[in-house]
Amino acid sequence: MAENNREVLLKVENLCQYFGPTKAVDDVSFDIYKGEVFGLVGESGCGKTTTGRSIIKIYDITAGSIYFKGQRICAGIQGYKNEITLCKQEIKKLKAERPADAEEKIAMCNKRIADLKAEIDKAKHDHKNCDKDYADRLIKELEAKYQPLIAAANGDEKAKLQKQYAEEVRIAKKTKLVTQIQMIFQDPIASLNPRMTVREIISEGLVINGITDQAYIDEKVYEILELVGLVREHAGRYPHEFSGGQRQRIGVARAVIMNPEMLIADEPISALDVSIQAQVINLLNELRDRLNLTILFIAHDLSVVKYFSDRIGVMYFGHMVELAESDELFENPLHPYTKSLLSAIPLPDPQSEKNRTRIVYNSLLEHDYSVDKPTLREIKPGHFVRCNDAEEKRYKEALGL
Q1: CA proximity to 256, closest of 190, 213, 206
Q2: How many helices (DSSP H) and strands (DSSP E) are in the chain?
Q3: Any alpha helices (H) in 332-400, and if so which ranges?
Q4: What is the Cα 17 distance to its own chain's centre?
Q5: Residues paired with 297 in a beta bridge
C-alpha cells in the first residue's frame, strides 16, 4: 500500500516473534515510506526493540514476512505450520463424522496443505537466500552496464573498464541486501568493541564487504568522522577515551559508512544527558536530509518522537495499538493506551505540571475481547487503531465520522 504514491521502502506483514511461550511481538503490520522517519513508541518490554532487531535479522522471525525494496528478507513459517495442523485436524474430524460432502472438503483441505507446504519452502528460500538473490541481481545490472562499454572500447580504455567491472562484480558478490539497513544501538558503551580502535570499528563493514584498498578505507573513515561531528585524529583512539555522546556519534558513523538506505535508531538518546540528546537528534536530522535516509526511530520520549517523526506507531504488549501521522496522533489520540502515554509527558510550566492529570491504562478494564476480537483498523485515512467492532464505532463517533 502506498500513500499518495509514496514508495514503500520497508513492509512488515503480520510479524510474530515468540521466545518460547512469550509473545514478544504478535501480529504487527506497518509500512515505512522512503525518506520518512517512522517513530515507534511504547513502554519498556512492549516489543519495540525486538521489532527492530527482527527487521535487521538479528532474530529469525517466528511468523509473518518483512519486505525491503520489494524483496522479502525475513519470513517465518510457524503460521503456516499452525494452519497445516488445523487442516489435518479438520480432515480427521471429517473422516470420523462422514458428512455428505466429506470427500469434497477433505480434498480442499489436502490442497490447502499442499499450498501451505509450498509457501513454507518459498519462505525458507527467501529468508536464507535473499542476499544471494540480491547479489545476483546486482551482477546482472553490472553486466548490462559494462558489457556494451567494454565491447565498444579499445586498448587501455578496454583494459581499464574490464578491471573496473571485475572489481565491482567482486564487491557485488559480497554485498548483502540487509546491509542497506543499519542499526544504531541503545547503549553506546556496550555496542562498541573496547579492543578495536575507532578506525577499525567504523571500517569493519567495508572490510567485510570485500573492500581492500586501505587508503580508500582510511579516507572514508575520516570523511564519516567529520560528517558526524568528530575529527580524523579520533580514528586512532579506543572507545573508552570518549564521552557517551561521542561514543554514540561513533555508532552513527559505523552505520552511515555503509551508505544505507535505512537506519534503525534503537533508543539512541536514552542513555545520554539531555543536552547531548538534542545534539544527536540534530545530527540524525542533518544526516537524514544530506543522505536521503529513511529512519525507524525507537524511543520512549514522546515529545522527542513528535519533533522528529513523520508518523508514529504505538506498541503495547507486543501489539501495534495505534498508528497515525505525528500531528494527528497528538491531536486525536483514540486508543486509551495512547491517551495514557500522552498524559505522562511532563510539562515545562510548573503550574500546568501541578495540575496535570495522569490517565491510568488497564487493558482488562478498558476492553472486552472475549467474543469480539480486535484487529488493526483504519478509523480515518491514515489513522489506524487496534479495536473490535464496538470500539471502532465509538472511535468514529468521537471523530464525528
Answers
A1: 206
A2: 14, 12
A3: 336-343, 350-355, 363-366, 389-398
A4: 13
A5: 39, 265
DSSP-assigned states of every residue in 26-47: EEEEEEEETT-EEEEE-STTSS
Q: What residue type is 84 in one-letter code?
A: I
Phi, psi of 349 (to 5 degrees): -90, 120
- On whether the CB atoms of residues 305 and 299 are closer than 8 A, the answer is yes
Written in H, E and C, the secondary structure of 212-257 is CCHHHHHHHHHHHHHHCCCCHHHHHCCHHHCCHHHHHHHHHHHHHC
Domains and CATH numbers, the chain: 176-300 (3.40.50.300)
Relative to beta strand 319-325, strand 311-316 is antiparallel
> How many Å apart are CA 311 and CA 329, to the nearest integer?
8
Dump pLDDT digits (tens) for 136-160: 988 999 999 999 888 888 888 888 8
Task: Give the pLDDT confidence of 301-356 residue by residue, as tens digits.
Answer: 788 888 889 999 999 999 999 999 999 999 999 999 999 999 888 878 888 888 88
